[in-house]
Amino acid sequence: MLPQLPENPVDRAFSFAQDSQDSSGPPSYIEPSTEDSDEDNYWSDAQSDLTSLASEVTNYVYENGRRYHSYREGKYVLPNDEEEKDRLDLVHHVFTLILRGRYHLAPLVNPQNILDLGTGTGIWALDMADLYPSATVIGNDLSPIQPAFIAPNAQFVIEDFEEDWEYPDNKFDMVHGRTLAGSVKDWPELFAKAYKHLRPGGYFEMQEAPIWCWSDDGSLEPDSALVQFLSILEQESSKANRSLNIVDKLKPWMIDAGFRDVQVRVYKCPWGPWPKDPHLKEIGRYQYINAIESVDSYGLALMTRSVGYTEEQAKIFLAIVKNQLRTKSLHAYNLIYFVYGRKPTEDEL
Ligand SMILES: C[S@@+](CC[C@H](N)C(=O)[O-])C[C@H]1O[C@@H](n2cnc3c(N)ncnc32)[C@H](O)[C@@H]1O
Predict the structure, then answer these.
(1) Pocket test for ligand 1, best of 141, 233, 297 (most atoms within 8 A of CB)
(2) Which residues pair with 263 in a beta bridge?
(3) Is the dihedral of CA 87, 88, 93, 98 positive or negative?
(4) Cα–ligand 1 centroid distance for 78 (angstroms)
(5) Nearest CA to ligand 1 atom 19
(6) In CATH, which superfamily holds the domain spanning 14-27+39-348?
(7) Gene3D superfamilies given for it (predicted)?
(8) pLDDT tens-digit profile of 164-190?
(9) Are 163 and 71 in contact (CB under 8 A)?
C-alpha cells in the first residue's frame, strides 16, 4: 500500500522561479524535436557513456545491493558506491553544460581559499583547483570516495558539515554546496556557518535542483508512478526534517544569514533528449541517464527504511518509475537553481 500522498509539495518552486523579480526565469516552453526514431522508448537508443573511477573506500555498509556510508551511519540516504560515483560525475557534467562550461556564477576574483561542502567524488573541487591554481580548494564529505591522486592545491577531508566547522572565521573566498537537499536538517545554521567562515567580500553559492519534474504539454500525468514516487520521496524526507525540495527558500535563507546582493538564476533541465534546441537536447541526453540512475539512488533506502517496503516491493515499484522515464512521449524537465550572495565588507556593516 502506498502511503497517502501530500499535495504537490513543489509547485512553489515553479511559481517562485517565474515570479522572482531578480531571477532569470526558465524559458516558458521547450519545443520538442520532431526528428526522432520510431521507437516509443529509449531502451534501444545509445548506451550509457558512464565511466568508472578508481578510488580507495574504507567505510561502507551494504543494503539492498547498494553500498552506503558508515561514518555517521544512516545520516545520508543515498549510496556511495561506484554506480553512485558515476552518477555524481554525470550530474557535474549536466550542471557544467547548463552553465556552458562554468563551475559557478559568483563573481570570484583571484580566490585563495575555497570550501566545497559535501563534495561527493570531489569533481567540482578538482575542476575549481585546476581553474584557480593559486587557490586551495578543500572538499569535505561523510564518505571517502574522492580520488587519491589529486592536484596539489586540492584537499579532501572526511567531516560532517552539520557539526561545528574547525576552520578559522573569515577564511574562505568562496563556500559552495551543490545538490545538498536531503542532506541538511538546519539550513539557517548551515548558512550562518558559511557566513562566519567566509572572509568579508567572499561568496556563498548554492546549486540545487528540486527532486521533482514538470511538463508543459501534459505528458507528465499527475497520477503517474513517477509523480507518486516524487511525492513519496518528498513526504519521507520531510518527515526526517531533510526535505528534498527547498530551492525557493535558498534566497530568503541567504538574506536572513546576512548575505548581500543575493542573485538567483533558474534553468530548465530536460529529462531526455526530446527538445528541439540542440543545447537542451544535449543536456537532456545526460540528464536522462541521471534521472534513471537517481530513481534507485534516492528511492531504495527511503522506500525500504522509511516507507516499509521490502527490497523486492521497492525494486518493482522503482522499475515501473524507471520505465515511465524511458517513454519518449514524456517531455519532463526539472529546474536547476543557482543562488549566490556576498558577505558584506566591514565598511558596509
Ligand atoms: C548528492 S551528493 C552531491 C555531491 C557533490 N556536491 C556534487 O555535486 O557532485 C551529496 C553529498 O553530500 C555528502 N553529505 C551528506 N551529508 C553530509 C554531511 N553532514 N557532512 C558532509 N557531507 C555530507 C554525501 O556524502 C554526498 O557525497
Answers:
(1) 141
(2) 340
(3) positive
(4) 9
(5) 160
(6) Vaccinia Virus protein VP39 (3.40.50.150)
(7) Vaccinia Virus protein VP39 (3.40.50.150)
(8) 999 999 999 999 999 999 999 999 999
(9) no
